[in-house]
Specification:
Radius of gyration: 21 Å
Number of strands: 23
Order of helices and strands: HEEEEEEEEEHEEEEHHEEEEEEEHEEE
Largest sheet: 13 strands, mixed
Distance between the termini: 54 Å
Structural class: mainly beta
Number of helices: 5
Helix content: under 10%
Amino acid sequence: MMENLTQDLRVLSSTYTNVFGTLYGYKRVGNKITDEHSVIFLVNEKKKISDLESDQIIPPTIEISGKVFKTDVVEGKLELCQSNQDPIITNNGQFCPSPWNSWTASTPTNQNRIRPIQGGIRIQNTLFDGWGTMGLVCVDNDTNSVVGLTNSHVICGDGLNTIYKCPNWIFWSMVNNNIFQPLNSGNDSNKLGIIKKHAAFDLWPKKTFADAALLTIPPSAFDPTISWKPFGLTGITDYLTFASTSEIDNLFVTNPDLYSSGAKTGSKGEGIVKLKVYGQFGSITLAQNNVPTGFGSTFVEMNDVFAYIASGNTTPNGYICSFPINRGDSGSVVIADFNGTKKIVGLAFAGLFDNNNQAGIAIACRIDKVAQKLNISPYTGQTVYFSNINNVEYIYENTFTSGLTKNVGGKTFWQMGGYKQN
């Protein structure tokens, strides 16, 4: 059933011309979240039926695999959550007391220079303005080396597969791009590593499941006793493993408490305001502005994503708190508590912002999809190695390739963009 639901939601997302995403989640009534399940349609603007075209009218119920679901329509603007601007805070969740909103008055220490490194801290590729979060220290299985996990769009620019680039278009190479923590202040001691792998975006109608990338970590920045811990989440005292596919498939059923630590809003989920699953099996489309003509689509379709919100015992029933994610939190890992055992379930990458420029819903890709794409595993105290960034081998080709990897002489090379040849 759930496998069919994932595919059916993908079809529904492209059925209506005003819809940019679908989820299976909780229905809203009067702007309050209820316990009732529904198929959620995400639109930029809700309108009266009289103002809609025939291919924009969403029925009150939809049948999927022989089961009838109520529908819900939620408006907002979907954005990737790297930071290149600060929101205008007009009302940071009127029912959500400090310390939930303390980041609006005082910059979280996640944005400081953190050594030894931990997940949940600010990183930046200074070839572009935005910055985001390194969510986790994990292990690259190809080389058994320590790496940092974040989003592709945080450190790899648009993150697009090289095949979508134009030979006459100047585009970005990721070769030897320095990643800084927390930022490039002219101090080389802030250099953390370079881009090692990324799960490149494909354009619609191809499916994309993971917005993810890896950066190298030097031994001088790593401490096996602390680097595996998410910064600021004091309740996590054991190594974090990756949740199984079955556990992630059933997130909406088990409804565990969630936790996250991001560079913009700090650590979340351990206070009186909780993070909770809002929807699952989602299919959303994200606009890409850098696509040359000739490819038809300018959208990336992210599939099998899940969504989460913030609420708590001080929040009146049905209301939610603003900013479970904000610009700068992209790359944060999402952690779930399964009956006392905390496991990583996702990698946050986007938020749904309302007309007041406040995010009410966070979107994450599944960690099992990320792990499969990048071939990574959690760090749990095992013997590991470190990448030698002073002796990196690259190969250069005169043609574009759509594959993420290429085997040459028994070695696996990962796509790293390209250069315009004059």
